[in-house]
Design a protein that fits this description.
147 residues; six-stranded antiparallel beta sheet; 7% helix
């Protein structure tokens, strides 16, 4: 958990709501991807609820292994709340706060096996599909956790 907070502190250099992406190609067909996104949101409403303040961090860790015509991809996303003065609709952050819909969670977002032979590609598993501007089909990247 300290690793997540260290990355969050490092991303403050880029400003709140920014994304830092690191991709590395290693030996033997293995590559890694690390994406860190710090996000600040505040909600002020003219009602009986207290104002909400949320500082959340999204950490994405991915790995790809490729050997010949076969490749394996996996990605895990963790959302942690650094400041959790908000109600998140899932019951973990309760109180008399306004709603910010970024609950703390960890999810396997992609795990797929790909086989390519000539002009044919076969994919099996869980994957994110984004078409054009993602208006109708996409991962909805505007909240901390992909939809």
């Amino acid at each position: 958990m300290k690793f997540i907070y260290s990355l969050a502190a490092a991303s403050v250099i880029f400003g709140a709501g920014s994304t830092a992406l690191v991709a590395a190609e290693a030996k033997d067909g293995v590559s890694y991807k690390i994406q860190d996104r710090l996000r600040y949101e505040s909600v002020t409403q003219n009602n009986t609820l207290d104002d909400a303040t949320a500082l959340t961090n999204r950490l994405l860790l991915g790995i790809n292994y490729k050997s010949g015509d076969l490749s394996l991809d996996a990605e895990v996303v963790n959302v942690s709340a650094l400041i959790d003065d908000y109600y998140d609709n899932d019951g973990t952050n309760t109180g008399n706060f306004s709603t910010v819909v970024d609950p703390e969670q960890t999810r396997l977002t992609q795990a797929k096996l790909t086989y390519k032979a000539d002009k044919t590609t076969m994919i099996a598993g869980r994957q994110m599909i984004n078409i054009d501007n993602q208006r109708f089909v996409g991962a909805v990247d505007w909240r901390q956790m992909f939809q």
